[in-house]
Design brief:
Chain B: One of its GO terms (molecular function) is glycosyltransferase activity. The complex is a heterodimer of chains A (about 525) and B (about 425). Chain A is α/β, with parallel strands linked by helices and about 525 residues long. Chain A has helices at about 15-20, 20-30, 45-70, 75-95, 95-110, 120-125, 160-180, 200-210, 230-235, 255-275, 295-300, 425-430; strands at about 185-195, 215-225, 240-245, 280-285, 290, 305, 310, 330-335, 340-345, 375-380, 420-425, 430-435, 480, 520. Chain A is elongated. The relative contact order of chain B is 0.14. Chain B has helices at about 10-35, 75-80, 90-100, 135-150, 150-155, 175-185, 220-225, 260-265, 285-290, 305-310, 335, 350-355, 355-370, 370-375, 385-395, and strands at about 65, 115, 160-165, 195, 210, 235-240, 275, 290-295, 315-320, 340. The chains are: A alpha/beta (about 525), B alpha/beta (about 425).
């Protein structure tokens, strides 16, 4: 059974045929007995079901109306007979094929010049007579079957996609300007860090969050143990405005001492803010925290000091028999009463974990936060400026804390009273960032800047791997800097000189990469 | 402190100056305050008829509502209350609005317009689709009633009467376009003003002087699905609906004149086009996250998608050749929506991405205008500036009636026996 193809050129858009002379139209009408108009907004399934039901209903209705009006003239009887014959034929041949048959039959009968490309214009004229009289002139819209226009390559065009993304960016920028924060202030992010195995992991996370912030940003990175190239190379990739300072002390090994040192590092950063007179909102973006974008939006709403709720993620212990029903994630932050006024603080209850918490950085026990973490607070940078009017009187001078070796546990010590803190994030109901401390063993070694140089010394032979024969290699110009297993039959291997191996034969193996610049094949992975 | 330096006379001068300055500043700030008061800067909408969306029709026209027996309206609605929720419900709500509106007059002698409340589209199949087969007879019977019981029809042969015919092809009373064209507009309505949703230029079923209205869309349902304005618009083009009507036109090419099928075939794998036939529960929310919403024709050129797009601030992309959109003389649709010819559908992505961003932002500003959104709705109870009032405004703009409206005594224009034989049967 042939089916009528969807055509790019309008084979069937010939007005003469689609508008239809009465005979073919009526025949088509007979065949189209089941064609009824449906309403929009019904799904296809529903629709087909509905059509079947509606068809029976409407079919009878239509026959009624047509039957009523039919005067039994010879013409009507003749057409009824034709109608019946056509129905029989269509039953036999099937819907689509019978349509084709009648199409060609009647086109041969009625038109002196049969359907030809280019003959369309000739064919149109004798048929104008049969156009219904009450159609108004000059309508370019034609009722009937049209071709479905498909362009030669119906796939996305990358240039158009880029343009569309630009448009959406512009629209979203306008939306932010209209509905977002008016007069957004610069965000000043303070991050204490130091070089260790997981620094790349943590710092990259913070960096990506900061790169997405739609406001101006200054990133103050305070590094324990002095400025190193490691850290500098990581933060240089951000493209943000960064202030990278070193702190002379090295990061100690115990969590207790580490928290203390981090507080001092943050105060050091605040001194920089004060000295440079940086204007904006100070957020404390610890390098192993996870921030949501709404956090930065909420931070814009702070007047002087704000507090948000921080979710504390502790890795759960293996020991069973936790007394609480289900372990709920502790949340640190402001507590509000029903009228959205600050009445207290949700802090971290460390009593449950006494004796079981980590002491040293690489302990496997859960790492506990302080009572109130620095990262849950947001400050207006003018609070730490010296000699500026308009500072509220409840803020202590930063210099007063200088040199005093007291344990500044949370920014609340910077203020004389803690009732001035504004609760943010729907009065603390929204958790906008998560606190997590995870570190590797202190003696873990990682390649400097995660680049393997010089080449690794030892490669370990392994047995034949279980994966099947490699597919034909595709030439690859990529220089891959990874180490993989060698799978040759040689019992022991030594350092192999790096050779560029392009089209290896189909042996079941991988190319080995011992050293640096080897162009490998994609089959390897 | 400054008083030490100024004597009495200059002090008076200073006061006068200060007062003038205050006055000027007051005006300045007053103007500024008006702008700042709105949350989003919007642009005023003025169509070809001028800045008329906010006009108040009260006092500009008087409408007399005929009292028809309830078999023409109330009983029909009682038999099938589903008529209140489908997209043709405008005829019922118009009646209810007029009954309690200040433009209604009980004295037909002073009325400018006459309204006949007959619910012709309320004959639904079990599945909720309206059947138009009895509508011509119903209309005819109603007109026979009003022409015999009141003299107002005969003196103008209906030229100062208006009827709400929200069906697919208006007063042609058929859902299939070819049949509708064959039938043409009901003979008896040739002189009346038709208020209909269908509009296509140079089409038999659109009479000169008709008022196009938007299809009914439930206002409460749409209001309850609003999301915060600052949710970024991250979908480029959005559409949900059929591309092929497999029940009636399995091969395509007939339904929507092949335009919907062309959209599907050209853009089904394009990530910018979020188009599918699904029925998500987040349909309204998704529209608010989209920049463009497609409003292609279906079996008839109009669709409730236009109303939804306007309410949700999504720029409507209208793919229907020669369509006449609602209140076309009051609303400058060219400035608000994007019109794409059906033959240009394969180039839709090029067309949409080549619109300059300033133009897009302007369109969004126009759409955000509350009077624009209000004009597309039929709220219950009626609110100022809504679609009911726009209809009345349209009727008021047609006043005063010209001299051709009133017939000379003995003159008859309408042919009461014209039309298909089936229409002449009594209802």
């Amino acid at each position: 059974m042939t089916s009528l193809p969807k055509s790019t050129d309008d084979n069937f858009d010939n007005p003469s045929l689609t508008k239809g002379t009465s005979p073919s139209q009526q025949v088509d009408g007979g065949l189209f007995k089941r064609v009824k108009v449906q309403k929009m907004k019904l799904s296809a399934l529903q629709q087909s079901y509905l059509t079947r039901r509606a068809n029976s209903f409407r079919g009878s209705a239509q026959l009624d109306s047509s039957g009523d009006s039919a005067v039994k003239s010879p013409a009507a009887i003749f057409w009824l007979a034709i109608h019946g014959v056509c129905c029989l034929i269509s039953l036999v041949l099937g819907f689509r094929f019978s349509r084709l048959v009648f199409f060609f039959l009647f086109s041969a009968n009625l038109y002196t010049a049969p359907f030809r490309a280019g003959g369309g214009a000739d064919v149109a004229s004798p048929l104008d007579v049969s156009v219904p009289a009450n159609r108004t002139a000059a309508s370019r819209v034609v009722v009937g079957r049209h071709g479905i226009r498909i362009r030669p390559w119906p796939h996305p065009d990358p240039v158009e996609v880029m343009k569309a993304h630009r448009i959406m960016e512009r629209v979203q920028r306008e939306q932010r300007a209209l509905f977002g924060v008016k007069n957004p202030r610069t965000v000043i992010a303070v991050t204490p860090t130091y070089v260790r195995t997981f620094q790349m992991l943590h710092l990259t996370g913070v960096m990506h969050a900061l790169m997405l912030v739609p406001y101006d940003l200054v990133w103050i990175v305070v590094e324990a143990g002095g400025v190193t190239n490691e850290t500098a190379s990581i933060i240089a990739k951000s493209g943000l405005r960064t202030i990278h300072v070193g702190f002379s002390q090295r990061m100690p090994n115990s969590w207790e001492a580490r928290h203390k040192l981090e507080s001092r590092m943050r105060l050091h950063a605040l001194r920089i803010v004060s000295k440079e007179k940086l204007d904006g909102v100070v957020v404390f973006a610890d390098d192993s925290n996870m921030h949501s974008m709404e956090f930065f939006d909420e931070a814009q709403n702070v007047k002087w000091v704000g507090a948000v709720s921080v979710g504390i993620l502790l890795h759960s212990e293996e020991s069973s028999g936790m007394e609480e029903d289900g372990v709920s994630v502790p949340v640190q932050g402001p507590a509000c009463n029903a009228t959205d006024k600050l009445v207290g603080w949700h802090t971290f209850n460390s009593l449950r974990y006494t004796g079981r918490s980590a002491v040293y950085v690489d302990d496997r026990a859960p790492v506990l936060p302080r009572k109130l973490e620095w990262s849950g607070f947001v400050l207006n940078s003018r609070l730490v400026w010296k000699d500026v009017d308009g500072k509220p009187e409840w803020v202590r001078d930063l210099d007063a804390l200088d040199g005093v070796d007291e344990d500044i546990e949370s920014p609340l010590s910077l203020f004389k009273t803690s009732s001035v803190v504004e609760p943010l994030g729907n009065c603390g109901r929204q958790v906008l960032l998560w606190w997590l401390r995870v570190e590797a063993r202190t003696d873990s070694k990682f390649p400097s800047r995660w680049i393997i140089d010089p080449p690794l010394d030892i490669t370990i032979p392994s047995k034949r791997t279980p994966w099947p024969d490699a597919p034909p290699e595709l030439p690859s110009n990529e220089k891959v800097l990874i180490g993989t297993q060698d799978q040759t039959n040689k019992p022991s291997t030594r350092t192999k000189t790096p050779r560029s191996r392009r089209n290896r034969s189909k042996r079941k193996h991988d190319t080995k990469v011992i050293g640096v610049q080897v162009s490998t094949n994609s089959e390897q992975n | 402190m400054q008083n030490r330096f100024f004597s009495g006379e200059t002090k008076m001068g200073m006061w006068k100056l200060g007062f003038l300055g205050l006055l000027c500043a007051h005006f300045l700030f007053a103007i500024g305050a008006v702008e700042l008061g709105r949350s989003q800067p919007t642009e005023r909408i003025s169509g070809s008829a001028g800045d008329v969306l906010e006009d108040d029709p009260v006092g500009r026209l008087k409408v007399f509502v005929y009292e028809l027996p309830s078999k023409y309206n109330k009983k029909i609605l009682q038999k099938d209350p589903r008529c209140l929720n489908h997209m043709f419900a405008a005829e019922i709500f118009m009646h209810r609005f007029l009954l309690s509106s200040p433009v209604r007059t009980l004295n037909p002698e002073e009325a400018d317009w006459f309204y006949t409340p007959v619910y012709t589209t309320c004959d639904l199949t079990p599945n909720g689709l309206p059947l138009p087969f009895k509508s011509p007879r119903m209309m005819r019977s109603a007109i026979q009633l009003i022409s015999s019981n009141w003299p107002y029809w005969n003196r103008t042969e209906g030229a100062d009467h208006f009827f709400v015919v929200p069906h697919d092809f208006g007063a042609c009373f058929h859902y299939q376009e070819e049949k509708a064209i064959e039938r043409g507009i009901l003979q008896l309505l040739q002189r009346a003003t038709l208020v209909q949703t269908f509009g296509q230029r140079n089409h038999v079923c659109l009479k000169e002087g008709s008022i196009t209205i938007p299809p009914y869309a439930p206002p409460q349902k749409m209001q309850s699905h609003l999301i915060p304005d600052k949710t970024p618009r991250s979908i480029f083009v959005y559409f949900r609906g059929l591309f092929y009507d497999v029940g009636n036109d399995p091969e395509g090419g007939y339904y929507a004149r092949g335009a919907r099928a062309a959209v599907w075939e050209n853009f089904k794998d394009n990530p910018l086009f979020d188009i599918s036939t699904e029925h998500p529960t987040t349909y309204y929310e998704d529209m608010q996250r989209a920049v463009f919403c497609l409003c292609p024709l279906g079996w008839a050129p109009w669709s409730p998608r236009l109303v939804e797009a306007v309410i949700f601030g999504c720029i409507p992309v209208i793919i229907a050749d020669d369509i006449v959109l609602p209140f076309a003389d009051a609303i400058p649709w060219e400035d608000i929506g994007v019109f794409v010819d059906e033959e240009d559908v394969p180039k839709l992505d090029t067309i949409l991405t080549s619109i300059p961003p300033e133009v897009i932002l302007r369109k969004q500003r126009l759409l955000a205008n509350p009077s624009m959104k209000q004009a597309m709705l039929f709220p219950q109870p009626a609110q100022p500036g809504d679609a009911f009032h726009q209809v009345l405004n349209g009727l008021a703009r047609k006043l005063p009636h010209g001299s051709a409206v009133f017939l000379k005594p003995g003159e008859k224009i309408l042919n009461w026996t014209a039309g298909p034989v089936g229409d002449l049967k009594p209802w």
